[in-house]
């Protein structure tokens, strides 16, 4: 199979007909039909059927298209990388972060880095922890920041932070005057929960089960940043990453955070390639990440028992 055949197939799947696919690609309709026919022969798959005058993809076509889309994502990344090399040379840095640190913390670290190297170019990529690991392992990213629950056998790892879980709430909430919040305080409260696959959420649920308590979940979300914003709007209370709370300056916006007891850490890792030596610029970026973390008041390998307000 050839790239042109895959592009024609992808266009037909997206546009719904060979004529619209041809218009999208800027080629003739017969050329699209011939390319799709060649792909069907080379894969020995029936890709489309005519039903009532419409071209309908078969289940095999749908399954194949999922793989083609994944391949095209890789091609798009290659094109973007080539464009970046053309514009900035091969010395640009790629920092991949999971959202908890990518949305608010990473910009602070990049500013730190830029204060030391004004000639360097940084690409910030936001993705889930497993995807960040894959980017670093494959060389698509120079440095990665991830949560600690992933398989790290394919990359080099160093601990980055252990930020405490904090209970966040509007300033008017009844728990805002407490020094800390315990599982018993959560019972019956409208609760903003992290997603079910989140490691910290599972730890919180185990803590509640041991105390024979239940929360009243009203919203679930993947990100601590969203937990904080929902709590600020008065939707309920939630457990969030202290790094997110501090990096996004939620205190200045009126959101209250209280330490959650027993302490539950949000841990993060710095990932680099096992197969390549770190460049001087990558080392400088890693140093900037550590400095930005220290500025915020989060340390490596420790669980804070209080959040300074």
TrEMBL record:
The keyword DNA-binding applies. PROSITE patterns: HTH_LYSR. Residues 1-58 form the HTH lysR-type domain. Keywords: Activator, DNA-binding, Plasmid, Transcription, Transcription regulation. One of its GO terms (molecular function) is DNA-binding transcription factor activity. InterPro entries: LysR_HTH_N, LysR_subst-bd, NocR_PBP2, WH-like_DNA-bd_sf, WH_DNA-bd_sf. CDD domains: PBP2_LysR_opines_like. Belongs to the LysR transcriptional regulatory family. This is LysR substrate-binding domain-containing protein. It comes from Shinella sumterensis. The lineage of its organism: Bacteria, Pseudomonadati, Pseudomonadota, Alphaproteobacteria, Hyphomicrobiales.
């Amino acid at each position: 199979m050839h790239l042109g055949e895959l592009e024609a197939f992808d266009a037909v799947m997206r546009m719904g007909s060979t004529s619209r696919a041809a218009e999208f690609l800027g080629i003739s309709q017969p050329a699209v039909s011939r390319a799709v026919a060649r792909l069907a022969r080379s894969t020995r798959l029936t890709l489309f059927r005519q039903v009532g005058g419409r071209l309908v993809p078969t289940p095999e076509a749908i399954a194949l298209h999922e793989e083609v889309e994944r391949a095209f994502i890789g091609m798009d990344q290659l094109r973007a990388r080539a464009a970046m090399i053309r514009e900035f040379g091969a010395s640009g840095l790629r920092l991949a972060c999971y959202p908890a640190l990518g949305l608010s913390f990473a910009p602070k670290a990049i500013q730190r880095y830029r204060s030391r190297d004004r000639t360097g170019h940084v690409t910030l990529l936001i993705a889930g922890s497993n995807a960040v690991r894959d980017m670093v392992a494959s060389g698509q990213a120079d440095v990665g920041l991830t949560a600690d629950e992933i398989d790290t056998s394919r990359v080099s790892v160093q601990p980055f932070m252990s930020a405490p879980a904090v209970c966040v709430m509007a300033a008017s909430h009844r728990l805002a005057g407490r020094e800390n919040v315990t599982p018993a305080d959560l019972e019956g409260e409208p609760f903003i929960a992290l997603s079910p696959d989140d490691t910290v959420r599972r730890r919180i649920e185990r803590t509640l089960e041991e105390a024979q308590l239940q929360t009243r979940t009203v919203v679930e979300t993947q990100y601590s940043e969203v937990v904080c914003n929902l709590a600020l709007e008065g939707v309920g209370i939630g457990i969030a990453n202290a790094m997110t709370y501090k990096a996004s300056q939620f205190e200045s916006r009126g959101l209250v955070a209280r330490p959650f007891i027993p302490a539950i850490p949000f841990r993060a890792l710095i990932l680099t390639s096992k197969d390549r030596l770190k460049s001087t610029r990558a080392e400088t970026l890693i140093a900037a990440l550590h400095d930005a973390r220290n500025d915020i008041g989060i340390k490596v390998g420790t669980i804070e028992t209080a959040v300074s307000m």
